[in-house]
Amino acid sequence: MSAHPPAPVEPLSPDVVNALSGVTTATITTILLTKGLRNVWLRGTRPLKAGQPRIIGRAFTLRFVPAREDLATPESWSSPISTRAAIEAMPAGVVAVVDAMGVTDAGIFGDILCARMQKRGVAALVSDGVVRDLAGVLGTGLSVWCQGAAAPASVTSLTFVSWQEPIACGGVAVFPNDVIVIDDDGAVLIPAALVDTVVALAPEQERKETWIMTEVEGGAALPGLYPMNAATKARYDKDHGKA
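The structure assignment produced for this chain is given below.
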C-alpha cells in the first residue's frame, strides 16, 4: 500500500476545456506526434455506450496490482486505502483513470461506486479494465470508457493500492494532473506540461483538416494535399486570409 500523500488536484482552466471541447482525440494525437509523443492513446478505453460526450478533465489516478489473498478481501473495502476512500477524494470535474493492468475478469467498480462518482461530479471513468453491474452503471449516467463488463468483484483478481500517483493505464504512463480528452475514439493523454501547446495548435490543425476534407469532397487528389505541399499551403493560406 502507498505511504506517499496523494498528489493535489490542480484546477483546469475553463478556457482550456472550452478550447479542447471542439478538438478530436485524433487531432490531439497528431499534434502530440509532431512533438515527439507517440504513446498517448490509452489502449482498451472504449466507450461503454454510444453517444457519450467528448470530455476533458485532469487525470485523477487509481492503481490496482494483482490480487493477494491476504489483502484482496471484502473487508479491504472498509480500509483507509480503498476505492471508496479514493472516490471521496475526487473533486468535481476530474477524469478517474484506473490502472487495472488490463484485467477483464473482475470489475473494478459497480453501480454503487459509479453512482457516488456521478453524485460527486466526476466527469468520467476511464480504465483498461472492466466494470460490473453493467445495467446499473449505465443507469447512473456516469460516462465510462473501459473494456466492457464482468460479474466478479475487483478482489477476485485485483488489489487496490493507491490513488493520485503515477500509473500505467492501457500501456500509457499517466501522472496526476495530466489532461485526459475522451471521445468515440477512446482516451488520449496530454502531458500537463504540453497542455498550453496543444491548446495553441489545435484550432489551426482542425481548420486545416476541415479545409482538406472539403478539397477531397470536391474531387482533389491526395498527393500534395495531405500532407500539404507548398502550393497547397499557399492556397490554404489565401483562403484563410493569411496571404
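Interim note for the steering committee: Residues 14-196 form a domain with the Glucose Oxidase; domain 1 fold (CATH 3.50.30.40). The mean pLDDT is 93.
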